[in-house]
């Protein structure tokens, strides 16, 4: 293998840059030529690729977002798009690709493999932490810290006014950001899509909540079956007209910002391992970190959503959230 490429795809996440840096510098240390593909699969189709050197990834380890840009490509879903992408990779002699992204990115790589034999290795880049085969995805740690910091601020004003705040965090299909940021901020209620009927549990808890505690925080994953923070706010108001309820949607604030140190270290480890895996002849596997050790999982297994909530954590929430 003499030439590889790296790209970021899907929703950006803090730590993607650290991973790109690790891929580029590891590849260069093995005397590989390395291309950065801009705008994910869309750039692959367009041939939007630049050769990277050590300085092209200087001073990016601390920056959120992705210097390679990102996109969600509709054209890559067509066979014509994928054929064009294959031709663009072949034109540059690219013999291996590191894909940094989430489930859509890896599903794309699996479909692409039907027409293109070039090996792909994935690094999990998504704030949602919704991939199997890794304890943490790149971006999750930063996102939960951002969310906790925001909820801490909301707690101050909620406490001053004796209000109930419903705070919506990201997670279209997965509730891990809500679960972790809810636990970390001491929320009185946490609503996640993996746990149906949790709205009723939270309403019961509000009904039985200890007297004296006048402010409350309920953290809701955007994908919760109750329908998001505004719907939850309506349900709380309907059941407790005496409460002063406010709704805050944190939104894309959670996707930006400087990655935490843990994120930078994990992203560096994964990018470094991804290049080694390509050179070892591995293909269509995602690098993960399980119990603090590098582990590999086939793409087709990594994209299986974790539907089971962590029951032990939920039991703990039911004891601590009062
Ligand atoms: O990055 C994952 C995610 O944050 C989801 O939780 C969220 O629903 C989605 O991205 C929104 O992304 P966009 O606004 O880019 O479509």
Main attributes?
322 residues, alpha/beta, Rossmann fold, 11 strands, 40% helix, elongated
Tell me what you see in this structure:
- The longest helix is centred in the middle third of the chain and has 22 residues, at 140-161.
- By secondary structure, the chain is α/β, with parallel strands linked by helices.
- It has helices spanning 16-29, 40-46, 79-91, 103-112, 140-161, 176-184, 198-207, 229-239, 261-279, 299-302, 311-320; strands at residues 3-8, 33-37, 49-51, 96-101, 120-124, 164-169, 189-191, 216-221, 245-249, 285-290, 293-298.
- The model has no long low-confidence stretch (mean pLDDT 95).
- The chain is built from eleven helices and eleven strands.
- It has two domains: 3-139 and 259-301, Rossmann fold (3-Layer(aba) Sandwich), CATH 3.40.50; 140-255, Rossmann fold.
- The protein has a seven-stranded mixed β-sheet with strand order 3-2-1-4-5-10-11, sandwiched between helices. Strands 7-8-6-9 form a four-stranded parallel β-sheet, sandwiched between helices.
- α5 (140-161) packs across α6 (176-184).
- A hairpin with a 2-residue loop joins β10 and β11.
CATH topology of the largest domain: Rossmann fold
Alpha-beta classification: alpha/beta
Percent of residues in helices? 40-55%
Rg, Cα atoms, Å: 21 Å
Largest sheet: 7 strands, mixed
Question: What is the H/E string?
Answer: EHEHEHEHEHEHEHEHEHEEHH
Give the distance, in angstroms, between the N- and C-terminal Cα atoms.
58 Å
The number of distinct structural domains comes to 2
Tell me, what is the CATH class of the largest domain?
Alpha Beta
């Amino acid at each position: 293998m003499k030439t590889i490429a790296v790209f970021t795809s899907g929703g950006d996440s803090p730590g993607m840059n650290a991973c790109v840096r690790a891929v580029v510098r590891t590849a260069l240390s093995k005397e590989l030529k390395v291309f950065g593909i801009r705008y994910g699969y869309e750039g692959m189709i367009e041939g939007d690729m630049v050769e990277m050197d050590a300085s092209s990834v200087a001073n990016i380890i601390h920056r959120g977002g992705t210097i390679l840009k990102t996109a969600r490509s509709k054209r890559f879903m067509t066979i014509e798009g994928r054929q064009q992408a294959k031709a663009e990779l072949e034109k540059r002699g690219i013999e291996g690709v590191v894909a940094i992204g989430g489930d859509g990115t890896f599903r794309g790589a699996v479909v692409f493999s039907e027409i293109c034999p070039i090996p792909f290795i994935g690094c999990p880049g998504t704030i949602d932490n919704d991939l199997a085969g890794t304890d943490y995805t790149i971006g999750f740690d930063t996102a939960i810290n951002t969310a906790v910091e925001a909820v801490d601020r909301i707690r101050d004003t909620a406490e001053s006014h004796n209000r109930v705040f419903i705070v919506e965090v990201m997670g279209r299909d997965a509730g891990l950001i809500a679960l972790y940021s809810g636990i970390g901020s001491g929320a009185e209620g946490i609503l996640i899509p993996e746990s149906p009927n949790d709205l009723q549990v939270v309403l019961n808890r509000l009904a039985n909540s200890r007297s004296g505690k006048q402010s409350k925080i309920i953290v809701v994953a955007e994908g919760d079956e109750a329908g998001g923070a505004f719907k939850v706010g309506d349900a709380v108001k309907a059941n407790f007209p005496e409460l002063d309820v406010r709704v805050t949607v944190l939104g894309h604030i959670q996707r930006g910002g400087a990655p935490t140190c843990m994120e930078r270290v994990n992203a560096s480890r994964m990018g470094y391992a991804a290049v080694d895996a390509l050179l070892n002849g591995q293909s269509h596997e995602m690098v993960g970190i399980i119990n603090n050790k590098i582990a590999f999982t086939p793409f087709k297994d990594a994209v299986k959503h974790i539907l089971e909530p962590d029951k032990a954590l939920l039991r703990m929430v039911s004891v601590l959230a009062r």
